[in-house]
Every structure is written in structure tokens, then in C-alpha cells.
Amino acid sequence: MQIDLHQPILDKNDKLAAELRARFDEHHVYVVDLLASPGSGKTSTILATIDALRDEFNIAVIEGDIASSVDAEKIKAQGIPAVQINTGGACHLESAMLKRAVDVLDLERLDLIIIENVGNLVCPTDFYLGENAKVMILSVPEGHDKPLKYPGVFQASQAVILNKYDTLPVFDFDEEAFRSAVYQLNPQAPIFPVAATKGEGVQAWAEWLAARIRAV
Amino acid sequence: MQIDLHQPILDKNDKLAAELRARFDEHHVYVVDLLASPGSGKTSTILATIDALRDEFNIAVIEGDIASSVDAEKIKAQGIPAVQINTGGACHLESAMLKRAVDVLDLERLDLIIIENVGNLVCPTDFYLGENAKVMILSVPEGHDKPLKYPGVFQASQAVILNKYDTLPVFDFDEEAFRSAVYQLNPQAPIFPVAATKGEGVQAWAEWLAARIRAV
């Protein structure tokens, strides 16, 4: 006999995620779940996004990592509430983990929660956390062929941030091939070229996000 | 009631992996399981390794990907046998998948099998495939803090390849902090700085590997 626990686990996760979403909606908090490989620049992108949006919106960050709290420390250093979730080995966040982090945030005074998922282009894709949108980051050094190899995350994302765009001259990255491959998988998703550590290109991405925060 | 299927799945995987390992040993084939993030340069490193070792050893490559066969095509273009495993969504290789690939290889005439695992710093760490060694690649653009965030893969690896080493001037990568963090987790593992696409630094890594191939 084979027991398939994948579907029951997802069902349980999705039920709790729907409850979280109801809480977010009730408090008019927009939630974005950020997916990317290790080292693609999730935290730098979040810091740049905070810079662009903090005058208009109250922001909190939930940091998912296997171990360590280095990312949450970087966010807190900017005066932004940050909750670190250590998954203790798990390769993605689930809504039960997220709930514990959300419970310590003051939703009443927040406009935006950015979730930094575990660095992983595969597993987080399947897990709904009650977010309004999943957004992914690919960084130029990772290569233009990633949509062919990890199609699921490109299909699940409402927008694609192409980070470390300033290193384009250093790498053999075919931007046209990349854009075409993303379009095949997800024709609606805009692609935002960004150099997060330099703040370049952040404006277009921040405006896309701001329009959605204002609408909830 | 909670059913923990993690351990039974690992037990079943390990049993089959041990059978594979017996076959590898019988035929004096050395097997290395290569772990890394998406886009860290696994395939380029494999191509550079093939270049360095093909005069002395007969090599085959097993490519693990969620989807696509672009990597296997690149290997085959070099005249090296390559078998593509598409995991169909799974975030790591398991020994049952590997067995199907090994079954189509002629072990009698091989000295080395390189397994390119799915791009993922988390999940493949737990799965023994019958390999002689797991080796990991971290690329400079991913950042020196990765040992803190993904300690498991650094502990499971017998050697660490630091790829895209030629891009060190472009990124804020603290090599001393990286080496120190790796040493804390795994004092035995050598670190090989490599620029795979340029063939730089490959010799030291190739010699480490060659010594192990000759010993089986």
C-alpha cells in the first residue's frame, strides 16, 4: 500500500492559509511571498523595496531560513519590524509556521508584509501562505536557462525581478532568450530588471507593488 | 494521529542506494553527487572536470532536473554519455530514479559517474544515492553567508567548489569569512576556487577527484 500524504498536507496548509488571508484582508494588509534561489539577492531586494515604499506604507518582513537570523537582523537595522522563522531543515515555509510569525505582528498598523521564503526554486512554489501574490527573483549570474529548468516557480509568480542586472556584462546571460522563455510560461508576468544593492531599477517594481497595496 | 513518513522513505531510499553502491564498487566506478543552487555552474563545472580527466578516465554523467534536457545535451555534445532524469517536480534525486539511469550505463567500461543533482541547497542533502562522495558548489555571486543559512549541505559535502571565482571583484564576497564558516561546519572539506567557464583553478579539484577515482 502506498500512502500519498502530499495532498492532505497541502489541504491542511491551504485551509490555514485561507484563514490567514482572511485576517490580512480584514486589516487591509497586502502580503507578498518572495521566492528565489539561495543568494539571488532576496534580502537586498527587500531592503531596496523598503527604501522605496517606507514613506507611504507601514511594512513588516517575515524571514524564512533553514537556520540563522542574519537576514532579520539586516531588516531590523533599518527600523522595520522583522520576524525570523527558522524552519529547522524544512525547505519551504508552510502556513502553520507563517501563522506563528503573523501572530506577533500588529496587523492593524501594517500595509505590507513581505515574506522572504527559504532560498529554493522548487518546494515553496506548492505552498499557499495566504499571500496576495508570489513574486520571484532570478539573478543574472544564475543564467537565462532557468525558466526551462524550473518552470513551476515562473508560472506561480505574478512578477519576476531580474536582479544583479548590473552584472549583465560579466555573464553570458541572453536577456532576449530569458524574456521569451518567461513569456511562454507566464505571459502576464512583468519582468523588472533591478540592481538591488545599487538601488537601480527598483522604482518600476516598487510602483507595481504600491498600486496593489493601495488596492487592498 | 500524525504519520511520519520521512524516516520510512529515507530507509527505503538508503536500502536501494546501498545496492547501487555495491554495483559501483564491483565495477570500480567512483560516483560523485554534485549539489548546488540553481545557476551556480554545475554543468559548466562538470564540463571543465570532463576536460581535465577524460584522457585518463571513462566518464558518464547523470543529469537531474525538474524539467528539460538542456544540460544532458551540453554533455553529450562533448562525446560523453549522459542520461537525463526529469524528476517531474521533485526537488531532489532519489535512489530509485538513479537506478533507472544507472541501468542504461555500461558500468564495466566506466571509471567515474558524475551525478548533477537538482539545483537545491536543501533537499538533496538528505538523500544517499550510493555515491562515494557528495561535493557541493557555491558560486561567488550567491554570497559568503550561505554556510550560515544552509549548514546541512556544507556538512554533508566532502569538498566545496567555489565557482565563478573570477567574479570576486564584482561582488561583495568576503572569502575569509566564507572559509572560516565552512571550516566551522566541516574542517576536513577542502575549498577549491574555480572559474569553470574559463577552466581556471580546475586542476586542483580534478587532482583531488582523480586520486579518489584511482583508489576504488
Task: Give a verbal description of the structure.
Two copies of one chain form a homodimer. With 216 residues, chain A is of the alpha/beta class. Chain A is built from eight helices and seven strands; from the N terminus they run H-E-H-E-H-E-H-E-E-H-H-E-H-E-H. Chain A has a seven-stranded parallel beta sheet with strand order 3-2-4-1-5-6-7, with helices on both faces. The radius of gyration of chain A is 17 Å and the shape is globular.
Q: Could you list some keywords that capture this structure?
A:
homodimer
In short:
Chain A has helices at residues 6-26, 42-53, 70-76, 95-102, 146-149, 151-156, 175-185, 202-215; strands at 30-36, 59-65, 82-86, 112-116, 133-139, 159-163, 191-193.
In order across it, which strands form the biggest sheet of chain A? 3-2-4-1-5-6-7
Radius of gyration of chain A: 17 Å
Quaternary arrangement of the chains shown? homodimer
| Poorly predicted sequence stretches spanning 5 or more consecutive residues of chain A | none
Sheet-strand content of chain A, in percent, reads 15-25%
Q: What is the residue-mean pLDDT of chain A, rounded to a whole number? A: 95
* Largest interface: pair, residues per side: A-B, 38 and 38 residues
- Measured as a percent range, the helix fraction of chain A is 25-40%
Record field, number of beta strands of chain A:
7
Tally of contiguous helical segments of chain A: 8
